[in-house]
Amino acid sequence: MKVGMAGELLFFEWMSELKGRLSQLAPEIEWIHAPSAGAGQQLLIDADSCYPFKQMVRSSVSLLSDVDVLLAPRIIAMDGFLVCPNFRALPDIVLMNRARLGLNKETHVFTPVVDIDQGHQLEKLAAGIYRDMFGKDPMSCGEKNFSADGQSMAMKDRDLSKSIALIGHPYVLEDSCLNNGVPDILRLNGIDIVYAQWIDFNELSNLAASFDYYAKRLYWRSARELLGAFIYFSRIRPAAGIIHLAPFNCGIDALMRVELTGLRKRMADAPPYMVVVCDEHTQRDHVVTRLEAFLDIVNGVKIK
Amino acid sequence: MASKSNEIFLGIDVGSVSTKMVVLDADSLSMLDSLYVRTYGDPQASMRAAMIRLSNRQPLPVVRTAATTGSGRTLAGRLINTNIIKNEITTHTLAAVKIMPEVRTIVEIGGQDSKIIIVRDGMAVDFAMNTVCAAGTGSFLDQQSGRLGIRVEDMGEIALSSNNPASISGRCTVFAETDMIHKQQIGAPMNDIVAGLCRALVKNYLASVARGKPITPPVVFQGGVAANKGIVREFQEQTGCEIHVSPYYGVAGAYGAALLASMVKTEQPAFQGLELSGKEHRIKSFVCKKCEESCSVLMLYRDGALLSYWNDRCGRYSSGEVTYNPLVTTGEK
User: Fold this and answer.
1) pLDDT of A219-271, one tens digit each?
2) What pLDDT does B333 receive?
3) Which residues of chain B have pLDDT under 50?
4) Measured between beta carbons, which residues in chain B are less than 8 angstroms from residue A184?
5) Nearest-CA residue of chain A relative to B100?
6) What residue ranges do the domains of chain A occupy?
7) What is the topology classification, in CATH, of domain B102-247?
8) Does residue A44 register a pLDDT over 60?
């Protein structure tokens, strides 16, 4: 059975875990994450949403032609914190576009609700999806131990003092189409990069809580991730510099870039911090200029 | 006075609107010459103009080291054969720190971009540049002065003669133009409109480019727009800081590049800029199919001989790892 899920979603650790769990339950699943064609279709997503989200819709709709079953999850919350509300609408927008474009009505579209905090909830979610797909209960294949992955463990031993830390939404950090190639440009300049996603979310969330100076608790998952990662890379294990990759100036990123800038001002000896708003750059050279200047700041270029 | 050896450091800033060149004496670092010409979308031609100016100096100077900056810095670097190719934020910082070591804020407004650089102890520590909006740049003033039928060079003096700047939106060139037309239609004096335009540009800059950045004195103002006294007055009024206009404001990027050239101690390839005026230079391109990046790789030919590659993201061609073979690679233009 060919099962499709937009590759961009897999950058969320929970979604990657979900895929892994489903593969354990049904080894016959052949996963497809990148559509073979149709990426140029005009979709009904001209509303005020960011490019990464549009890309997820585009990937999902285009996958309809390639798969037997499409997984278009309705993601509400992960780790007990809310995800951008656009993600709740993903299945609706995919189905709306399928109807409008008259695409593969035979392809089943599963739209499970993702609201998970604990490993056992993921087990339940995977079992429910299996049941819907195969019409029977899954065989038990034992409890999976959810723990920090190798990357996260390796972080503990790394010297970050010469590294540039990248913070932001996981799908922006990982996908070169969405991040203007920033990680690649840094690597070409010989820079060691560390990602916020390499640190366990609970650790980031706890760090965010230690700086909770808002009237309300920060309830957006990405906001806690950003704040926690900023504190981690500026205070707990300082990096040489921090670059915040924001898709566009939407609510959470717009708020956090201001908050992090303010927080940095109040810190003594905080590492250089720069925001790159990916949607604002159409030319790679514009990004290169900013990165070069940022690296000069990190390296303390001074007139002699 | 040139150095006894007649050696110079050269800085070239190829911007989207103008190309600037600065010649420094290699011993004293004093400025021997500077040039400001319009790029007119043809950086090769503006570079050639700069090199003709350089070759006309008597006696012919010996370029010890050259550096390029600006949005056309990579092309310029290839044309003159230098490896010192630096972003404009760093070169503007070097230029400002040289003329005022205690500078803490640099305001730079050029033809199509504007930036703020925060400096501490002679080093840049933070910066911001405009991105999708050119409302607060020299082009905006150029465009509006043309529409008002005045020379952009005269805008500053005209603005200073007004004590009642008209209220004009600076958020967007379209809205600004609408507001200016409205003020003209109701009979507002020209000087009030021009002063209002200056006020709008500064408001736009402070609200967008400089948003969240601490503007603390001393403030140095660089870039072509620093010539406009109306803008300088507005910066002073809106920030409450004294604004120091760099004596080299129009060529500050090139000045910084020349200073950077003077700091480099490693051996550099032979300067070949003067050959720009006498030999045929052509740029060709091909699309590399090695990976999904599909880079449009550029190649510089001088008198038919291939000199260098650039614009390949992985450095496969520019590093000399491989050479272009039209039988293997398709897409040459």
Assistant:
1) 899 999 999 999 999 999 999 999 999 988 787 888 888 889 888 988 888 99
2) 45
3) 1, 330-333
4) 313
5) A303
6) 2-134, 150-299
7) Nucleotidyltransferase; domain 5 (3.30.420)
8) no
Q: Closest Cα of chain B to A289: distance in Å?
A: 6
Q: Which residues pair with B35 in a beta bridge?
A: B21
Q: Does A267 touch chain B (CB under 8 A)?
A: no
- Chain B nearest-CA distance from A291, in A, is 9
pLDDT tens digits for range A63-76: 988 899 999 999 99
Q: How confident is the model at residue A204 (pLDDT cuts 50, 70, 90)?
A: very high
Task: Tell me the C-alpha distance between B78 and A213, whole Å.
Answer: 52
CATH number of A2-134: 3.40.50
CA atoms within 13 A on the CB side of B179: 19
Is A289 an interface residue toward B (CB < 8 Å)?
yes
Higher pLDDT, A1 or A282: A1
Instruction: Give me the pLDDT at residue B3, please.
Output: 61
Superfamily of B7-91+254-276 according to CATH: ATPase, nucleotide binding domain (3.30.420.40)
Same topology between domain B7-91+254-276 and domain B102-247: yes
